Structures are given as structure tokens and as C-alpha cells.
Amino acid sequence: MFRRLFAALTLLATLALGGCGYNDFQRLDEATKSAWSEVLNQYQRRADLIPNVVATVKGEANFEQETLTKVVEARAKATSIQATPELINDPAAFQKFQAAQGELSSALSRLLVVTENYPNLKANQGFQDLRVQLEGTENRITVARNRYIKAVQDYNVLARSFPSNLTAMVFGYQTKANFTVQNEAQISAPPAVTFEKPASK
Q1: 22-187 architecture in CATH?
Q2: Where do runs of H (alpha helix) occur along the chain?
Q3: Which helix (DSSP H) or strand (DSSP E) does residue 20 occupy?
Q4: 117: part of which helix (H) or strand (E)?
Q5: Angle (deg, nearest 10), helices 91-114 and 65-80
Q6: How many Cβ atoms sit within 10 Å of the Cβ of residue 159?
Q7: Which tens digits make up the pLDDT trace of 106-143?
Q8: CA distance between the termini of the chain
Q9: Cβ(122)–Cβ(196) under 8 Å?
Q10: What is the pTM of this model?
Q11: Among candidate residues 69, 67, 76, 60, the one with its CA nearest the CA of residue 111
Q12: Closest CA relative to residue 95, chosen from 168, 19, 21, 182
């Protein structure tokens, strides 16, 4: 008798959890973690390319040290933040991480614009290869970030919709941090990689 009652209660609990969105929370939570990992992977790829860019640019005589220093400092700041999966559940930490990545994007963009004034760099095949790799990485960052935005949107809709929002309250599923419009504007534009000088008026 006890076994039948236990089996019935287990079946009822299973059906209730399935119908209230519990399994959807598991699926979408994993999807956001996976998407976030890809964002981090692309940010890391960019960070790994920067030392080579800096080393190449350093070889150019009289290159603007302030511009170079800002890139090095921005990279150090961006890579010093511990980017764990839990970061996406902490809006303040997420915003800090994105601000650091935005600063790095801006500094890198400025560096590549300044290199237009150095013909030797424009003729340096190694530098040109790095430029192409950086451009490709910025594109990959944009794609990965957009996938993350969509994954978080799906998760947050589930967390806020009835009746799955009741499941969210019971099991402590909080909405996840996402890129804000301000952050998107700051980091969505890839660094300028055109080395053509503007036509004189």
C-alpha cells in the first residue's frame, strides 16, 4: 500500500514539475551557460591576439606610447575579472565585466586608427595578418553575443511568465543579466581596420 502511494506521489510530482516549466528551466539555463561560454571564448581569443599586436606596433619607431599603454592597461583590466558562469547571475558583476570589455574595444579601435599614420605598419604583412584576425574575432564576438542575448531572453521570458514564474519563485530561478542597450552601443562596433587615409578636401 505504501509503495503504491509513494509511486503515485512520485508520478504526480514528476508530472507537476514537467508541467510547471521545471524542465524548461533546466534546458534554458544550460543554453545560457553554453552561449555565455562561447562569448568568453571569443573575448579570450581577442585577448590572446593583443600581445602580438602590441609587440608588432612596438617595433615601429616613435609610435604613440599613450595609445599603446591604454590598450595594454585595458587588456589587463578585462582579463583580471574572473569570468565564471555565475557572473551571468550577478547583474553588477556582469555590468563591470562588460564595461571592461567595452574599454578594451575602444582602446583597440583607437590603436588601429592611429596605425594609419605609420606606413611601415601598413606594409607589414605580419601586422596585416593580425588585423584580419582581430576583425574576424570581433565578428565572432558579435555573433556569440547575439546568441547569448537570445538565450537569456528565452530564459527570462520563462522566469517571468505565468505559471512558470511560480516555479521560478519556488526553486529560486532569478532572471539573468543581459547586455544593455548602452553596453551594446559601446562594444558592438568592431575596431576600425581600414587603413586608407581620408581624401583631402
Answers
A1: Up-down Bundle (1.20)
A2: 2-19, 22-58, 65-80, 91-114, 119-123, 125-160, 164-171, 181-187
A3: none
A4: none
A5: 160
A6: 21
A7: 999 999 888 888 888 888 888 889 889 998 999 999 99
A8: 93
A9: no
A10: 0.74
A11: 67
A12: 182
